[in-house]
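Lab notes, practical 5.
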Amino acid sequence: MDFISLQFVFYVTILLLIMMVVSKNRVLRELKSQNYQLNRNLQEADEQAKLIIKTDLELNKTQEELDKKVSGLFALQKISHALSTTLEEDEMFNRLSTPLLHDLGFDKCLLFVLNTAREPICRIIGGFKTEEITNIQSAVFSNMKLINLISDKNSISSLTDENPEIKEFVLKKLQSEVFIISGLLTKQGLEGILFLGNESKALNITEGEEELVAILSTQISQAIENARLFEQTWRSQQDLEIKVKERTMELTKALENIERINKRKTDFILAVSHELRTPLTSIKGYASLILAGTLGDIPEEIQTRLSKINEHSDKLTDLIENLLDISRIEAGRIKMNVQDQEIKPVIDKIAEMFAIQIKEHNLNLNIDLPKEPIKITADAMQIERVFINLVSNAIKFTPEKGEVKITVKDTGDFMEASVTDTGIGIPKDHIHLIFQEFQRANNAIDNNIKGTGLGLCLVKQIVEAHKGRIWFNSIENQGTTFSFTIPKTK
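Output from the prediction step:
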């Protein structure tokens, strides 16, 4: 091979080598670029992995807190139900058992309640020995700093309270690193203390749990207040029932005594009235006989006195008859001749009967009857007596040129009748006595007119015997209205 050929081969080889080097450098650059990108991707992936792990931890923590909140809310709901289904304090604490409090996530719990004597009583114990409670109770309620803090803040906890003295006290006396102490507050002040705690710091508490415990303590406070109010009300009711029963027995005995006295009075009046009627009849008979001249002529003076005897005998007879009628009606011995009848004929008869007296007293008699006839079921003679007494009183107590008015109206099941006058009225101090026996107001018009005080009592007895009622309205110096009702014919 000649020199030129060798030289050509050399150059070609050099060229190939250069091309190979250039190509290799290019590949190396590409590999470096890829390696840089790969390292960068690895770093980003590492950061993302760290972020994912951090997010996962936060999500787990949030999930744990949510689980605790849900569990706490569920436990709070069960506790609320237990508190709301009874109003007895002892039963309430029996239902508010330790397992329910443990559902809130604590392994220690105590519930102290002040009784009516303001002495603390441990109602619920969890995570403590029974023999420890006396010392714990004494230590808690003698620690005035703790009591004042609870009263002021309502609740304190290892999460929010930075007081090392309180934390040391809880750790030493209540063996808890983590705790919530909440006061049972009512309108009367501090009524107790709720303690929830954990021995280990690993079982820490959250703000949500502290809120749940605050809600729980409020519910317990309200339940205690309601239970004590219910007990107080129940005891008051029992005392009231006892007093009512005792008073009822006293009133029953008093009523029996009154009925016994009334019966004796009625029997006495009946007996005396019957005993008086015989000699009174004889007196009136002899007086009438002498006045008639049967035994010969009598002097005018004696005749005048015999007329007085005869007049007073008539008054005594009326008095005895009224007494007998009142006693018979009270005793239920009088027989009513009850019949269906119209009221108009009775009123017409009364108007005719008093026509002369109305004229003599210079009065005006006004009668107001409805157009449609009213039928009543009553004893006509007794109803006449009612009108006679009421109209007679109206005439007696009404001055000249006054008016007496009889009004009748239909009120549905009853007839309502009224006798109204424009007389002197009834004094206020006599109003409560008006229907009592032997009670009568003074007649300022004519003090010579006397009465027995039995008329209105008899009227009341007759009306009530007919299943009606009687009442009156009176204004002094203006007049009086007596009204009564009688059942209508059905």
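Observations recorded by the TA: The domain at 83-235 is CATH 3.30.450.40 (Beta-Lactamase). Residues 443-450 have pLDDT under 50 and may be disordered.
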